[in-house]
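Predicting holo structure, NAP bound.
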Amino acid sequence: MIESKVSLKQFNTFGIDVSSKFFAQAQNEDEVRSVIQSNEFLNNENLILGGGSNILFTKNFDGIVLRNNIGGVEVLEETSESVLVKVGGGVVWHEFVLFCISQGWNGTENLSLIPGSVGASPMQNIGAYGVEIKEIFHELEAIHLKTGEIQYFNNTECDFGYRESVFKNKHKGEYLISRVTFRLSKIPNFNVSYGAIEKQLEVMNVRDLTAKSVSDAVVSIRQSKLPDPKKIGNSGSFFKNPIVDELIYKEVKRKYPDAVGYSVGKGKMKLAAGWLIDQAGWKGKTIGNYGVHKNQALVIVNYGGATGQQIFDLSTNILDSIKNKFGVQLEREVNIY
Ligand code: FAD
Ligand code: NAP
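Done. Tokens:
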């Protein structure tokens, strides 16, 4: 059913109080097709929505929002070493992670507690603690929004990059990702060298590494650092870590010896944007009812009642200040509408 003038406040984790001219939810592929063939869809701009955890609405949406609720988890193939599992795009990502852990399937544990839906996970090749979904991704099914046909994309065709995919670039706005298939390993091979995981495992006195213990460590670190969107509006990291030429990195490092950077190969370095924003004095800064989170400078927060435009303007001020201070151009990670 297509509704008119629906508040989107509960559908975006920033908690921005805007409305959509039309709004629909789809539980399966047939419902998606029925919405995309409607006059409301054909005559208006559209937005496919998952959990709304990587979105900033700066104004009312003058078109139709289609929320993807396609569910289901189906094992396609299983051997003693791995499993191929197809997951509905509307499944909550962290619920899928917990399901994998309960089944003894490894590969998603470092990506624990990332908000949002399975269908959005390929959009920006979600990543955390040294793992990105491209490492466990097998294939996805996407419904073409003009023809209603299902098309399949393999790993290469998704053209995954650092918080990037073909769906944010060449195919932006063309598809609804309806189902995603992952290959998960039954053989334990954990990546705990990243960030604070090892330290947290020690604090938790973990001796035998399991997907569950790694996931518990990740959840614990995230809960201590990141604002819970149910309590404080946010969309996670507002900015991407900039990838810069080694020469630029060396220049920043010469002026600021404490600058944090990591090699990403091919003469490029990834600078920690959180460090840059912190050094520029933004961490914990509050402007009325919004600001920069006190524990994580990459996260912009809405304490309640801020408008999307205010948050967008703050992000512009941060971009300008980092450019002026370090000569580095940051990019927003959050999708702006
Ligand atoms: P939405 O916000 O609903 O949509 C995001 C974009 O994808 C929009 O452009 C939308 O149109 C499009 N889209 C959504 N679903 C579909 C679909 N089925 N088909 C086609 N297009 C679609 N991200 C990380 O990568 N790593 C992290 O560690 C991480 N931590 C976070 C922590 C917090 C506290 C928060 C709030 C966010 C975090 N994020 C992180 C960002 C966010 O959780 C992810 O990007 C997530 O994948 C977004 O999913 P969603 O369903 O909420 O997408
Ligand atoms: P952190 O562990 O304090 O690390 C700070 C930054 O340094 C991160 O941005 C991370 O880059 C980078 N980094 C740390 N160790 C690294 C290593 N061994 N090799 C290469 N780069 C390294 O970061 P955090 O803020 O607590 O976040 C932890 C993880 O969760 C990170 O992977 C982060 O991306 C992810 N996260 C993402 C979001 C989001 O919305 N996108 C929100 C919260 C957390 P990367 O960011 O490239 O990993």
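The pocket of NAP (ligand 2) is lined by residues 127-129, 194-196, 225-226, 236-237, 241, 262, 272, 274, 296, 333 (CB under 6 Å).
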